[in-house]
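Can you make up a polypeptide sequence alongside its tokenized fold?
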Amino acid sequence: MHKQSTIQGHAAALRIANFDTDQVMPKQFLRGIDKSGLAAGLFYDLRFDENGKPKPDFFLNKPTYTSTDVLIAGPNYGCGSSREHAVWGMQQFGFKAVIASSFAEIFYSNAMGNGLLLIVLSEDQVQSLMKEADDEGAPIPIDIDIENLTVRTQQHEFKFTMSARHHRMFLEGLDVIGLTLKYKSQIDSFAQSHWEKQPWVKDVARKTVDRLTA
């Protein structure tokens, strides 16, 4: 992850409620052994027809929408399976943030842990942003102030919230492991105290293997 205090992008609306992760990243794109190439599968059934040709009426296939990097989505975005590929695919396609009134819990955790910012606003606020985008007929400029938790467009300004843990992760560029390592001294101190009180549990797995293979 990299440090993010602001996101300056262009937002467009996807007016579909309960948009699940199989729609975000269909199962046929999960066969690889690494994260590469997932942008090709993003929203595949919306972007392409049965012959693999781009659907001209889907907004991301239109030349005017090539700058889109923030998605304004319907409620319960990312429901369905827990596939982390959905997050990776969105990032590889170029998305930096998703705004919706609610997200599936696992998708929210996956996204925030990988640096894809998810912003929860009220449904009325989301609808206002969608209308602004629809009226414009093109992606609307949007400024997201992560440090001060504010979303601004030409017509609207909204405050949002996130947990202190996620806020720190974005501002300091930390993933879950990096955040955990910030407490390494406390962890080491606790472990040392624990082993001093119960020395028989230290390296018990290694000791067991050594005994069985001796």
Remarks:
- The domain at 6-180 is CATH 3.20.19.10 (Aconitase; domain 4).
- The chain is about 35% helix and 15% strand.
- The beta strands are 6-14, 70-73, 97-100, 117-120, 140-145, 150-152, 157-159.
